[in-house]
Amino acid sequence: MLFELIRLEFIKSFRSTAFAKSVMVAIFLGFLAIMFLSYLLMAGLFLNRILEVLAEGENTIEVLNSGLIFFFLVDFMYRYFLQKLPVIELESLLHLPISKHKIMHMLLGRSFFSPLSIIALILFTPFAFTVIGQEYGIQGAISWLGTVVFISWTLHWFMLWFKQRFEDGLIGVGIVFAILLLGGGSTYMGWFNLGEIVAPFFRFAMSSSIPLLATLVLCGAGYYMAFSYYLNNAYLEDLSDEEEVRFVNQSVGFFSRFGMAGELANLEWKLIIRHKKSRTFLMLSAFFLLYGTIFYDNPAYQDGPMQHMFIFVGIFITGIFTIQYGQLFLSWNSSYFDFFLTRKDGIKNLVKGKYLLLLSISVLCFLLSIPYVYYGWKFLLIHFATFLFNAGIMIHVITYLAIWKPKPMDLNKGAMFNYEGVGAAQFLMIIPMMVAPYLIYLPFALFFNMYAGLAALGTAGVIGILFFNKLATININRVLKNRFEISSSFRQEL
Predict the structure, then answer these.
(1) The organism sits in which domain of life (predicted)?
(2) 354 and 230, same structural domain?
């Protein structure tokens, strides 16, 4: 029966009308995966030498044992954002006269065959047999490597349960942030070194098989937990209710004060929290609010020309949602764009509603960035000036580029490695993001000081806000002028 299910999957792929496109995408992603895994293999081959350079004079085995916990934290993070859930095909399988146990085993087993599952194996196998094997023997190398790999595989099964259980909700995001904060943040802030706490476990794995057996049992328990949850919740009505009814009544009250544009902004908000791709962008925006911690406390950026890098960081933090969500300005509405064409002022209200939503979340991002004042008052001024510039200037620049030949996309697909809706304009947006703020900031900062540059940047933003309607009209007229061409491109098959 397992082979029959596999055969059905192959038949479904070959009969798909988008088979040729799927093959090309698969070849491209396969090439990227092979290239990435090749880099990992090279890193694994030179891992001992890399550790010798980074921790000169220290035992590389001890250094790696102390750092493994941070590898697993990174493993946890990229699995959260990249790992796909094996539930997409359930609707096409549950009605068949096949045991749900067999369907779940097949779907879970297929999810395991992924480049993510062999990262730990490729990265640490050379080190295990060339370094650990010389000191602890082949048995010690196998025990240590097996322990590391089984922990990584346990994270695979745990993430399948975790993502399905919390459905990318705020609770799930909060747990991810808490784990990353307690893991990496505790060491960075000097609270406690988590690596030194767990290092004895991996040290013990080199001289005993007990950790290997324990992690093997843990991996099996993780599989059973994921299997049980999927089996108990594999019902078509549950799937449809979760996608269609969830968050249906979640509205933002003050949007209603802005007329029809506000109502459309409210609908856009519902679109964001209902669909996987847009919801992922919202969560990534919250995650990238921590971007400043990389730069603001780094001595290399405190003085000299490098301190001007803070302007880009401020633009990124206060405008991250506008950058991510706004770059696909009209593509989000590709499936029902024709609806707005048939309504009086439909396009005008759609564009204004999007502006209202982007500005509202930018205000929220600025307010959430206020705690950066902990690093100094100048960072609050940087965020305020860059927020004004984003609200007055950058939002129009990003929108102008985004409505240049927009492409359709499917909202129900994930955001990672999904290039639907992405065209040349999306790749070119990094240029105005990097150049535009510095064209105004640098002349004043170099001739006077940083605060003069911030004042100029904020003043430009205020001017843009005062003339907001006129600037928005430019983009509205562009959409109206090309509305039929845009509508025709949205009707193309994905």
Answers:
(1) Bacteria
(2) no
Q: What is the pLDDT of residue 320?
A: 84
Of 234, 268, 299, the domain-final residue: 234
**Together in a domain, 129 and 77:** yes
* pLDDT tens-digit map of 161-193: 887 777 555 566 667 767 766 666 666 666 667
Does 299 share its domain with 269? yes
Asked if residue 396 and residue 277 are part of one domain, the reply reads: yes
> Residue 279 above 50 pLDDT?
yes
Q: In this structure, is residue 99 part of a structural domain?
A: yes
Residues 230-245 have pLDDT tens digits of 888 766 554 444 444 4
HEC profile of the chain: CHHHHHHHHHHHHHHCCCHHHHHHHHHHHHHHHHHHHHHHHHHHHCHHHHHHHHCCCCCHHHHHHHHHHHHHHHHHHHHHHHCCCCCCCHHHCCCCCCCHHHHHHHHHHHHHCCHHHHHHHHHHHHHHHHHHHHHHHHHHHHHHHHHHHHHHHHHHHHHHHHHHHHCCCHHHHHHHHHHHHHHHHHHHCCCCCHHHHHHHHHHHHCCCCHHHHHHHHHHHHHHHHHHHHHHHCCCHHHHHHHHHCCCCCCCCHHHHHHHHHHHHHHHHHHHHHHCHHHHHHHHHHHHHHHHHHHHCCCHHHCCHHHHHHHHHHHHHHHHHHHHHHHCCCCHHHHHHHHHHHCCCCHHHHHHHHHHHHHHHHHHHHHHHCHHHHHHCHHHHHHHHHHHHHHHHHHHHHHHHHHCCCCCCCCCCCCCCCCCCCCCHHHHHCHHHHHHHHHHHHHHHHHHCCHHHHHHHHHHHHHHHHHCHHHHHHHHHHHHHHCHHHHHHHHCCCC
Place of tokens 């697993």: 72
Q: Is 349 found in the same domain as 215?
A: no
User: Domain of 203?
Assistant: 43-234
Query: Do both 155 and 290 map to the same domain?
Result: no
Model pTM greater than 0.70? no
| Range of lowest pLDDT (30-39, 130-139, 170-179, 395-404) | 170-179
Tell which of 184, 201, 234 closes a domain. 234
